[in-house]
Amino acid sequence: MTHFRKYKAAVITGPRKPIELWEYDYIDPPAGCITIAVVRAGVCGTDLHLWQGDDSSSNSNSSSDDARDIEPFILGHEGLGRILALGEGVSTDHSGTPVSINDIVYWNPIRPCHACYECTIQRDLTGCQNGTFVSPARNTVSWASYTQVATLQRNNNFYRVDAANVPLDAFIALGCALPTMLKGLENKGPIHRGEAVLVQGCGAVGLAAIFLAKIAGARAIICIEGNAERRRMAERFGATEVLDMRGAEYETVEARGRRIREIVGARGVELAIECSGHAAAVEEGLALLGRNARYLLVGTWAGARTVALSPFETVHKALKIIGTTYASPENYYQAARLVEAHFREFPFADCVTHRFPLGQVAEALQTVAAGAAVKVVIEPQAE
Fold first, then answer.
1. DSSP 319-331
2. Which CATH number does the domain housing residue 155 bear?
3. CATH number at residue 200
4. Helix/strand/coil (H/E/C) assignment for every residue in the chain
5. Residue 287 has what DSSP assignment?
6. What confidence category does residue 2 fall into, taking pLDDT thresholds of 50, 70 and 90?
7. Domain that holds residue 368
8. Are 289 and 334 contained in the same domain?
9. Is there a contact between 105 and 99 (Cβ–Cβ < 8 Å)?
10. Nearest to residue 365, comparing CAs of 24, 153, 49?
11. Which of 20, 242, 262, 293 has a Cα at 20 to 30 A from 365?
């Protein structure tokens, strides 16, 4: 029996419009579903893009300007929730692990249909043409995370986490970033022991990249970042060199390039991972790649700028340039297991630098926009 009768959720009604708190009636979960009290909601840069209206995955009916109409939706796609009720037929998570009331689960907000070409032939669940990412606010239930209560649908894959032994902040710290990086490794192949790895940007995605490079045995992990707090966190995660792109010594592309070549030697960078979301970083990264190098593009989720690419250099260096989009359900399961295995060695929980209650989502997004945080979280149950 739950104490909830009503609950609130943060709703986007239009680009850059004030975020509204809507009230909903609590409904017991239908068969095959579960209802959770959201205890942590990670604030991702994509949430900021969705609120600003500059991301194609929003429910926009027009793209003319910031006055366009959208279908109101509930924000949030990174979350941990405490099970309030199990719908008929639910006794395990989507890995077969038994679940019960009060267990903590980590869920995938994308709901693939498992019945289209992308899902069944390409095995590209994030490319599902029938999938749903945002949660419409006019529904009677939500599967988003900026809400006090969520009802996970049959195709919202969820996984129990070891909340008894691992801090909740350790799981939410790299929210969707660690699953996204794991999907990227599926697409491009593993990080090889002894590789020189360049990570551009040390937000949550960049920290996930550093973590995976470290446990893979990379010989050098070089990072470029302007935020001092993120640089310190990159070092704690195992970066061997962190270049301050805002400092006098490494403020130019040329200066950074010289230092990186001093570190990696004649072979050049063997793997670069773009995590900053800035097109200019791609131009810089391309110039640093050695022969047979791989370049994984992860961070550029929204935007329209293009960059110059030399087909001649790409062919003669035999470069592999790979884009990757978000994560599949199995990547959430893998991410949870990795955090449980390594939370004592890596400062996952310390990444959470800012916390806000549900009524201060606008302030949380502004903190992300200002670049003032490593990781921002919403705590929907907080006053």
1. -EEEE--S--HHH
2. 3.90.180.10
3. 3.40.50.720
4. CCCCCEEEEEEECCCCCCCEEEEEECCCCCCCCEEEEEEEEEECHHHHHHHHCCCCCCCECCCCCCCCCECCEECCCCEEEEEEEECCCCCECCCCCECCCCCEEEECCCCCCCCCHHHHCCCCHHHCCCCCCCEECCCCCCCCCCECEEEECCCCCEEECCCCCCCHHHHHCCCCHHHHHHHHHHHHCCCCCCCEEEEECCCHHHHHHHHHHHHHCCCEEEEEECCHHHHHHHHHHCCCEEEECCCCCCCCHHHHHHHHHHHHCCCCEEEEEECCCCHHHHHHHHHHEEEEEEEEECCCCCCCCCCCCCHHHHHHCCCEEEECCCCCHHHHHHHHHHHHHHCCCCCCHHHEEEEEEHHHHHHHHHHHHCCCCCEEEEECCCC
5. H
6. low
7. 6-175+328-379
8. no
9. yes
10. 49
11. 242
Joined together, the tokens standing for residue 85 give 């009720």
For residues 6 and 204, what is the distance between their CA atoms, to the nearest angstrom? 33
Domain-located, residue 363: yes
Cβ atoms < 10 Å from Cβ of 258: 11
Distance CA 192, CA 213 (A): 8
- Residue 218 burial (10 A CB sphere; 0-12, 13-18, 19+): buried
3-state secondary structure of 81: strand
Tokens read off for 101: 């009331």
Residue 205: φ, ψ to 5°: -65, -45
Q: Average of pLDDT values for 315-322?
A: 90
SS3 260: helix
pTM, full prediction: 0.90
- In this prediction, residue 109 carries a pLDDT of 82
Given a cut of 90, whether residue 237 has pLDDT beyond it is yes
91: tokens are 């006794």
Rounded-to-integer distance, Cα 107 and Cα 130, Å? 19
